[in-house]
Amino acid sequence: MNDPNGLVYHDGVYHLYYQYNPGGTTWGAMSWGHATSRDLTQWTEQPVALQARGFPDNITEMYFSGTVVVDEKNTSGFGKRGKVPLVAMYTSYYPVEQTLPSGKHVRKDQQAQSIAYSLDKGMTWTTYDAANPVIAEPPSPYQDQVLEFRDPSVFWHDQTHQWIAVVSLAKLHKIVIYTSKNLKDWQLASEFGPANAVGGVWECPSIFPLSLDGSREVKWILMLGLNPGGPPGTVGSGSQYIVGSFNGTTFVADEDSVYTPEEGSSQTANWLDYGPDFYAALGFNGLPRDKRTIIAWMNNWQYGGVIPTDPWRSAMSTPRHLALKTIAGKATLVSEPAARLSTHGGRTFTFRRLDGERELGRLGKALEIELSFSRKASLATEGEFGIAVAATKDYAQETRVGYDFATGQVFVDRSRSGEVGFDGTFASRYHAPLVLGADGSVSLRILLDWSSVEVFACEGEATITSQIFPSKDAVYSRLFSTGGETGNVKVRVKEVRSAWR
Ligand code: FRU
Predict the structure, then answer these.
(1) Which of 49, 74, 129, 338 is most buried, most CB within 10 Å of its CB?
(2) What would be an example GO MF term here (predicted)?
(3) CATH code assigned to 4-337
């Protein structure tokens, strides 16, 4: 699988649709898979929601990324006998030139926006063949982008009483914004971009509101995937965001959220996550504004098709709750795990002072770790403190998570994390800037799973998400402090129960 699609909370159920190949473990025959959950932790696999048309031998249409909305007021007219329709908007990708049932003619490899609806709470779907694709071509003057026009994200805009769709002109680093009263007829409203990171195509854009510091002031966030051209030190896919405002037609970026090279500033983007494996992030429709919850594809197009797993390939990130906080004078996205994990066997280790290495022993393969520590200002300029997780007994394999006092960065080092040879860029170290607390303290929350490590630093202003492929016996852990003594070390470790029923 790849991108999460159609995330929606409806009637007590979280729906996760996703880019899925029913015919193999590499990209192809793109369909919408489907899983549901009541708590964002335990997921139940459901039948494929939208299967590539003509699968397996004669595919004429694939279902690329998109979103789902609950059409409470039945603006679409798809509702029958009082049933509330769920409406999906997605990109139709046509591998062959053809004339569609709607009479519209499409080119080979064209990407266009289509809709489908469900009257049974998202379980089965009917494509709107009478008129699909409902947005057939990019707007003028961008018609030449017809092969690179995708990933609509739709939501209801209360203030202007209309539907909004944000679509990417991937190669131009632009988004286009459309409005609609009925989800069927769409009018172009505006465009935005390029801005900030433009190293690769822009994909999977979405915009959504959040209150700033929990106050009445609401800002809008544009969040999008970039492939390649992710955060510094990574290769391949990444996710960035821009803070701004939105009035129902136009997104305007805040001045301090965009960077121009002339400023001489080294910052080029606001990264949603500083690791290599956090892409195509999408939020749930159907939740209150300040319960914004996102899921990302925990993989990277750089090596997504060759990661050493079988029979599955790719997992989703843990769901994250987003908030907007003023940090160092700037509106910044912060994130924390949204789901309460089911854990057991809590253990706590405390060390008033620690220098060198300290064994923690066998901890396990799926862990929730809270680690906090501090350094005196005089020692906080060199060396590192952190924890090695998913390590073999001899530490030939380990994944190091910690803080680099010399550079002021949180890091994850997976260069010796296990199987790393399937891609030349995989064995690397990743870092995110993090200013020490006034008392010289750092706190890290680490979600370790069999094939991934997700790190949330301090208030969640720096996160690093990485896949790892350690061997079966990589269950050991130790702390390390270099370049001097680290104080007030506290480690709380809980084992996470399997999320599989
Ligand atoms: C992003 C992406 C989307 C596209 C989908 C196809 O990972 O390339 O732009 O809709 O994957 O599977």
Answers:
(1) 49
(2) hydrolase activity
(3) 2.115.10.20
